[in-house]
C-alpha cells in the first residue's frame, strides 16, 4: 500500500510539501524468530521523486529506517507536469505512483 | 541477634537472586550478537562518504522528540539553512547514529528543484543517543547538527 500526499495545483514558484509512505516491514536482519533463527534482512533500498522527468529528491535507506518508510520533502512548482514517486527494494522490485500537478 | 552485621558486599545467593541473575544472562545472550556501531564508526562513515573535508557545526537543525517510548519508530525532522537556488543548494543529507548496528541510517539527495531543504522521516534507535546529521552544500562544504532522544525501549530488542 502506498500513500501520497501532494497538492493537485500550485502557483508558479510555490514550494509544495510532498509526503510519501509505503507499507513495508523494513526487516533489519537483526531480529530472531521464535525458533531463534535470524529473520533475513528485507528492506527498501531507495526512493526517488521526479517532477516532469527531473529528479527532485532521492533517498537511500538502511535498516535504521523504521517500518513503513515515510518521507516528507519539498518541490518547487514551475510548470504543469507529473510527479512520480518510486521505491525499489533490495531485490530490485519497484513500485511507482504518479500524481499530476497543475501550475497556474 | 539478627544477622544485620553482614558486610554490604557479601552476596547471599538467595533463590530470588539466582533467578534474577539467570534473567540477566538470558537478556545478555539475546543482545550479544548485536554488534553496535560506535561514535568512531559514525566518524568513519562520514569519511567514507565525504572524505577528509572538515565538518562545520551549524546550518543544520535536527528535531527529535526528547523521549521516545519505542525506539522502533522515532520521528526526525531535518532543516538546512540554504536558499536552494541553482548556485547555492543542499546536495546531500546523511543521518548517522553512534549506537545503532549500522552507523548510516539514511542518505538524501536534494537539488535546486526541491525548493526547500527540509526533510522528515522515521528512524529506528537502538537506545538513547545523539544522532548527527551532515549536510553537503553545492560548494562542497559540510555542515552538521545533532539531536538527542531518550529511548525507554530500544529498537531491535522487541519486535
Poorly predicted parts of chain B: 27-33
Q: What is the fold-level CATH name, i.e. the topology of chain A? A: Immunoglobulin-like
**N→C terminal distance of chain A:** 31 Å
CATH architecture tag of chain A: Sandwich
Gross morphology of chain A: elongated
How many independent structural domains of chain A? 1
Most extensive interface, residues per chain? A-B, 30 and 35 residues
Radius of gyration of chain B: 22 Å
The number of helical elements of chain A comes to 0
> Can you tell me the CATH superfamily of chain A?
Immunoglobulins
State the secondary-structure class of chain B. alpha+beta
What is the count of DSSP helices of chain B, taking H or I runs of 4+ residues?
2
CATH class of chain A: Mainly Beta
User: What is the CA-based Rg of chain A, rounded?
Assistant: 16 Å
Oligomer: heterodimer
Helix % of chain A is under 10%
Average pLDDT level of chain B: 84
**What's the helix-strand series of chain B?**
HHEEEEEEEEE
Would you write up a description of this structure?
The complex is a heterodimer of chains A (about 100) and B (about 160). In chain A, about 0% of the residues lie in helices and about 55% in strands. In chain A, the strands form 2 sheets. Chain A has a 5-stranded mixed β-sheet with strand order 2-8-7-4-5, with no helix packed on it. Chain A has a 3-stranded antiparallel β-sheet with strand order 1-3-6, with no helix packed on it. Chain A has no helices and 8 strands. In chain A, a hairpin with a 2-residue loop joins strand 4 (about 45-50) and strand 5 (about 55-60). Chain A has about 100 residues and is mainly beta. Chain A has one domain (about 1-105): Sandwich (Immunoglobulin-like). In chain B, about 20% of the residues lie in helices and about 35% in strands. Chain B is built from 2 helices and 9 strands; from the N terminus they run H-H-E-E-E-E-E-E-E-E-E. In chain B, strands 1, 3, 5, 6, 8 and 9 form a 6-stranded mixed β-sheet that branches. Chains A and B meet through strand 5 and strand 6 of A and strand 6 and strand 7 of B.
Amino acid at each position: 500500500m502506498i500513500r501520497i500526499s501532494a497538492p493537485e495545483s500550485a502557483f508558479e514558484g510555490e514550494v509544495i510539501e510532498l509526503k510519501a509512505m509505503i507499507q513495508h516491514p523494513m526487516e533489519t536482519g537483526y531480529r530472531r524468530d521464535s525458533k531463534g533463527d535470524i529473520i533475513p534482512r528485507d528492506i527498501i533500498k531507495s526512493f526517488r521523486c521526479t517532477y516532469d522527468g527531473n529528479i527532485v529528491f532521492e533517498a537511500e535507506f538502511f535498516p535504521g529506517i523504521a517500518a513503513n518508510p515515510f518521507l516528507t520533502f519539498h518541490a518547487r512548482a514551475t510548470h504543469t507536469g507529473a510527479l512520480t514517486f518510486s521505491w525499489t527494494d533490495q531485490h530490485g522490485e519497484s513500485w511507482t505512483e504518479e500524481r499530476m500537478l497543475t501550475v497556474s | 541477634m539478627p544477622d544485620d552485621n553482614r558486610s554490604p558486599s557479601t552476596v547471599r545467593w538467595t533463590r530470588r537472586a539466582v533467578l534474577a541473575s539467570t534473567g540477566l544472562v538470558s537478556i545478555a545472550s539475546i543482545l550479544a550478537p548485536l554488534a553496535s556501531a560506535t561514535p568512531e564508526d559514525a566518524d568513519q562513515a562520514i569519511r567514507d562518504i565525504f572524505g577528509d573535508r572538515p565538518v562545520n557545526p551549524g546550518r543544520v537543525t535536527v528535531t527529535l522528540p526528547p523521549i521516545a517510548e519505542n525506539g522502533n519508530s522515532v520521528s526526525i525532522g531535518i532543516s538546512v539553512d540554504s536558499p536552494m537556488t541553482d548556485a547555492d543548494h543542499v546536495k546531500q543529507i546523511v543521518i548517522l547514529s553512534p549506537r545503532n548496528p549500522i552507523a548510516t541510517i539514511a542518505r538524501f539527495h536534494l537539488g535546486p528543484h526541491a525548493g526547500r531543504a527540509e526533510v522528515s522521516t522515521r528512524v529506528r534507535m537502538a537506545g538513547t543517543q545523539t544522532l548527527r546529521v551532515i549536510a553537503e552544500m553545492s560548494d562542497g562544504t559540510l555542515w552538521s547538527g545533532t539531536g538527542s532522544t531518550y529511548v525507554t525501549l530500544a529498537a531491535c530488542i522487541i519486535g
